[in-house]
Amino acid sequence: MGYDIDRFVGYVNEGLLCSICRDVLEDPLQAPCEHAFCTACIHGWLVHHSNCPEDRQMIDVSLLRPLYRYMKNDLNRLQLHCKNREYGCEMVCSLESIDRHERECEYSQIPCSNAGCTVQIERRNLDGHLAVCEYRSRECPNGCGYIILSAEDTQHNCVAELRTELELLRSEMICRVEEAKHEMESRLDSQRRHMVQKESILQNEIEELKSQMSRMMSDVRSLMAAERQHRQELEQAELEKREL
After folding, report:
1. C-alpha to C-alpha distance for 231 and 82, rounded to whole angstroms
2. Measured between alpha carbons, how far is residue 189 from residues 29, 83, 131, 185 in Å?
3. Which tens digit of pLDDT belongs to each residue from 141-200?
4. Residue 29 carries which DSSP code?
5. CA-wise closest residue to 137 among 155, 127, 124, 152
6. Could you say which residues form the signal peptide (predicted)?
7. What CA–CA distance (Å, rounded) separates 156 from 166?
8. Among 29, 59, 151, 239, which is disulfide-ready with 64 (CB 3.0 to 4.6 Å)?
9. What is the Cα–Cα distance from 127 to 104, expressed in whole angstroms?
10. Cα angle for residues 203, 207, 212 (degrees, 5° grid)
């Protein structure tokens, strides 16, 4: 849909009106036949039709193009009233800058920022509303540190709130202790299995060393016996030599 023509100051050229909604063009597109439309209007039209609503020539979405520059400039220079005129805004500005103004207009109806509040209020009156809004939050004046809504003032009980908080903290602490306990037990089990494996490996290494030592001692005894045998043979040879 386009801009309501009644908002504009002065004469508006016929060529700047949407051929479908007959309001002033908003986000305009132009067909090859040079008829102009609001983007939303022509897209909605082409869902059910395949021709221009003015001259019935065949058109397709892919054939739509931006408005000619000189027409776009004429459109942007048009002067119109703010949409919040009915609430008291007297601003008149160009179509090119109207969106920027209306985003910041003090007369715009905006929602209250407090959660749960459904009031729509003029931007210029928002601060005053927030000061008295029943959904506004503030810190408990009794010092418990809780943030409460004004509507809950009569129901707020510091002792009960703190007791609830304490129970939650206790439950959380118990959960954390249990988690830490399970984690430590898991680590200890892992370390215990690792130590058992290391012990088994060391025991096997010790047995292998004992076996090697036993073989070495046997070899040493064999060498010593061979050496005694050799010495006896030398002594016998020496005796025989002396006898000769």
Report:
1. 129
2. 73, 73, 61, 6
3. 665 666 665 555 556 666 677 777 788 888 999 999 999 999 999 899 989 999 989 988
4. E
5. 152
6. none
7. 16
8. 29
9. 15
10. 145
Residue in 49, 42, 10, 45 with CA at minimum distance from that of residue 25: 42
The identity of residue 113, as a single letter, is: S
For the record, the structure tokens of 109 come out as 């109806």
Instruction: Return the structure tokens found at 114.
Output: 């407090």
The one-letter amino acid code at 130 reads: L
- pLDDT, tens digit, for every residue of 57-69? 998 899 999 999 9
As a whole number of Å, the end-to-end CA separation of the chain is 143
Sign of the alpha-carbon torsion through 83, 88, 91, 97: negative
Kindly state the tokens that stand for 91: 């601003």
Rounded Cα–Cα distance for residues 159 and 191 (Å): 47
Q: Token match 């494996």: residue? A: 197
CA dihedral 163, 166, 167, 172 (to 10 degrees): 160
pTM above 0.90, yes or no: no
Half-sphere exposure of 229 (CA within 13 A, CB side): 6
CB-based contact 61:43 (threshold 8 Å): yes
Burial state string for 123-159 with b = 16 or more CB within 10 A and e = fewer than 16: eeebeebeeebebbeeeeeeebebebbeeeeeeeeee
